[in-house]
Amino acid sequence: MKVTNHHNVPAPLVTLASQEYYSKGASQYSVTELLSPPRVRRLREQYKDRLEQDVTDMMWQLLGSALHVVMERGIMPGWISEERLFTDVNGVTISGQIDLQEETPDGVVLYDYKFTSAWAVMNDKVEWEEQLNLYGWLVQTVRRRRVTGLKICALIRDWSRHDVGKEGYPQRQIHVLDIPLWDYDTATKFVLERLEAHRESKVSADWGTDLPPCTAQERWQSETTYAVKREGRKTAIRVLKDLNEAQQLAEKEKGYVETRPGEPKRCTGNYCGVAAWCDQYRASLAEAERQ
Ligand code: SF4
After folding, report:
1. Cα separation of the two ends of the chain
2. What is the pLDDT of residues 186-204, one digit of tens each?
3. Burial class of residue 235, CB neighbours in 10 A (0-12, 13-18, 19+)
4. 36, 205, 218, 241: which one has the fewest Cβ atoms less than 10 Å from its Cβ?
5. How many angstroms does the Cα of residue 277 sit away from the middle of ligand 1?
């Protein structure tokens, strides 16, 4: 991917942004790639020479890289920082780089640093659970060490002292979360399923047939909602998920219902980076236009 500098940011920042800090070494799939939607992975490979991002849109990636660069300075006995592990599954090499491992008498506790939002900390993030469990699986497979805990060390970007006390709001700006630990067989099954999904997608790409579509979850599809409104009032009386309920309320309130269509946010915001070349996205835009 090419990093552009359209707004004259100092060159060293561009150099830092251009460095692939998370090299996947000689592996075919990093854990991140294995977890990414197969369609995104294939399109990124297909259009790698045309992918670009401006350095001004990469602030959190830059800070993430900076954190990893300095993290090793704080390392101490009993802790392992930034270890990349490799293993082979049915001839495919998988690797994962683990931010931090704490050696305890009972086993290893894994940590992953995340620059994230308070909202993310307050809501279940299935991607974090999958990622940490794949790291746990790697440690058990490669290092033959028992894994006893998985933790996210969240560095909360938008934390506000004023919101402390609200239900579920993190008490501090650095917040450690426990992630559910899967048993080894469950994690192995999950690895095999991900590999199969990527294999199928690669076969489609090699044969020039349609790539498997991204799922609603992979597209970060938000739900369609129905706002009950009344003439002369700026804000909605209520926003509901059920159309019938909204229509009944609108009748009672002598108002009307405004449909707010759900949105595939990963596509519309081009968070996958390949929206420009995705026929699934193009088709969904055309469909939305028809409606
Ligand atoms: S644009 Fe949407 S559907 Fe297409 S690859 Fe990206 S996330 Fe998937």
Report:
1. 36
2. 999 999 999 999 999 999 9
3. exposed
4. 241
5. 9
> In testing the pocket of ligand 1, which one of 218, 279, 281 has its CB within 8 Å of the most ligand atoms?
281
28: left (phi over 0), alpha (psi -120 to 50) or beta: alpha
Closest approach atom of ligand 1 to CA 274: 6
Q: Identify which of 190, 98, 85, 182 has the alpha carbon closest to the alpha carbon of residue 142.
A: 85
- Counting from 1 in the atom list of ligand 1, the atom nearest the Cα of 264 is 2
Helix or strand or coil: residue 28?
A: coil
HSE (side-chain half, CA atoms, 13 Å) at 156: 21
HSE value, Cβ hemisphere, 13 Å, CA-based, for 224: 8
| Half-sphere exposure in the Cβ direction for 280 (13 Å, CA) | 19
Burial class (CB in 10 A: 0-12, 13-18, 19+), 254: exposed
Q: Which residues line ligand 1 (CB under 6 A)?
A: 37, 39-40, 43, 214, 219, 264, 266-267, 272, 274-275, 278, 280-281
Token reading at 65: 């890289």
CB 277, CB 43: distance < 8 Å: yes
Place of tokens 């082979």: 88
The minimum-distance atom of ligand 1 relative to the CA of 272 is 6
pTM for the whole thing?
0.88
- Atom 8 of ligand 1, residue of closest alpha carbon: 214
> Hey, is 50 helix, strand or coil?
coil
**What is d(CA 254, CA 275) in angstroms, rounded to the nearest whole number?**
42
Question: In the structure, what pLDDT confidence band is assigned to residue 26 with cuts at 50, 70 and 90?
Answer: low
Compute, in angstroms, the gap from residue 188 CA to the centroid of ligand 1.
27
β-pairing verdict for 79-89 and 2-4 = unpaired
